[in-house]
Amino acid sequence: MEQRLANSFTMTVNDKQFIETALVSDIRVDGRRPFDYRNLTIRFGSEDGSSEVQLGQTQVIAFVTGQLVPPYRDRPNEGTFAIFTEFSPMADPSFEPGRPGDSAIELGRIVDRGLRESRAVDTESLCVVAGKLVWSIRIDLHIIDNGGNLVDAANIAALAALSTFRRPECTFGGEDGQELIVHPPDVMEPLPLIIHHFPVAVTFGFIGEENIVVIDPTYHEEAVMGGALTATLNTNGDVCAIQKAGGDGVLQSVIMQCLRIASVKAGDITSKIKNAVESYNTQRSLKKIKRHNPSSAASKEESRQVNPETKSTQQSCDINSSASTLSIGSPEEQSETLKDEVKLKHKKRKKSTSNANSS
């Protein structure tokens, strides 16, 4: 087999025999059956057009961006899209930083072929001004961890990111009405892409002299398999693309069996992608809604508003309390104390006058 998409890990003879012997009994190293898929997890980032897919030990991140560019001359009314892949050195020891290698180029071509040949994305809706400006969609695939079957994980990540991507709304304005205005998201709601169907890639591996067929091969199974076949189908059963990268020959009956199995798996994966996108859109819409509880607001207003009768009673209580604190004793006691003070003043005056006469 041409080990372009497979890893460069070299298996020992005992490990290879163990994997092949286990497959004869319909058991794989990780405990799955030959036609069982690994656990699939789809997550989305904080921004539109970003997704993270984990298929077993394989992890891929996808980002979708767009910009206005002139269209191609042969297709003036259609937008464009391109796929770029980046293999991180921490994903696999055989991946080297720098320019993309053959594995990265072939992975991007397989995913691009499934989307482009099936016309899953409506490129005519990306046209802004015919023959002048169209939207160019760019899909960046970053391989974070290589646990086997990079094609399926990258394809699912690209579909999930495209489903949540939204391009800015464009209108014409200005004095002459010919000025193109690209509105930011806070001014006008961005528009999602029109996706007609989901072309899902399903990869099969052929192991041993008997070409035992397994679906979703792992990292160790890729090191011992003699060939691989990737079929891209949608939920309607339409075959969008088939990739057979050299290796051992496969009978026509085996290929038809793989296509029937891939059709079922494509339906299951499509439903998972749609459910994940629907939950993301629900959370996105809830973030824009400002929650308002009328019962709590009414209770706050009632607490702020005070009844005038209660105000008057409070004021009267305050006055009475202040009056009670200022007045000390009964009125009769107050009059007696005043008389005593007057007598003391008269006595002082008499003493002062007697002293003056004597002198």
Can you walk through the features of this model?
This protein has helices at 13-24, 102-117, 150-164, 219-224, 252-288, 294-304, 308-326, 331-358, and strands at residues 40-44, 50-55, 58-69, 80-87, 127-129, 133-145, 166-167, 170-173, 179-182, 191-192, 200-207, 212-215, 225-233, 239-244. The longest helix is centred in the C-terminal third of the chain and has 37 residues, at 252-288. Helices cover 40% and strands 24% of the residues. Helix 3 (150-164) packs parallel to helix 5 (252-288). With 359 residues, it is α+β, with helices and mostly antiparallel strands. The chain is built from eight helices and 14 strands.
Give short descriptive properties of this protein.
359 residues; alpha+beta; six-stranded mixed beta sheet; 8 helices; 24% strand
Per-chain topology:
Blueprint: H1 13-24, E1 40-44, E2 50-55, E3 58-69, E4 80-87, H2 102-117, E5 127-129, E6 133-145, H3 150-164, E7 166-167, E8 170-173, E9 179-182, E10 191-192, E11 200-207, E12 212-215, H4 219-224, E13 225-233, E14 239-244, H5 252-288, H6 294-304, H7 308-326, H8 331-358
Parallel strand pairs: 4-6
Antiparallel strand pairs: 1-2, 2-3, 3-6, 5-6, 7-10, 8-9, 11-12, 11-13, 13-14
Helix pairs in contact: 3-5
